Amino acid sequence: MSYNKVVQVATLKSKPAQGDRLAALLSAIREHALTNLEPGALEYRLARDGDSFVCWEVYKDQAAIEAHLENPGVKVLFAEIAKGDLLEGNPVIQAGLQEI
């Protein structure tokens, strides 16, 4: 059995009163990912429950994930996370999952 698509799931929890800020950052990443600027990004879904967020991402292959990391919005998100005032704890990322 051969699998081509690669799935990545990220779970994030914002600090109190930072949920809308995190939502805006994640939405900017999604908008960039789903344009022709990232042809290997096949799906990018966001879900929110209060301050908890889940990102479901599907890519053509591992190279597409690596290209996604060059998305300007991803770099901004990482910089904002590094400041320490956006998230409760670290994001939990399940990477390299194979779609079945």
UniProtKB/TrEMBL annotation:
Q: Which organism is it from?
A: Leucosporidium creatinivorum
Gene3D superfamilies per record: 3.30.70.100
Q: Where is the ABM domain?
A: 6-76
Q: Which InterPro entries match?
A: ABM_dom, Dimeric_a/b-barrel
What Pfam families does this protein map onto?
A: ABM
Stated name of the protein: ABM domain-containing protein
Origin superkingdom:
Eukaryota
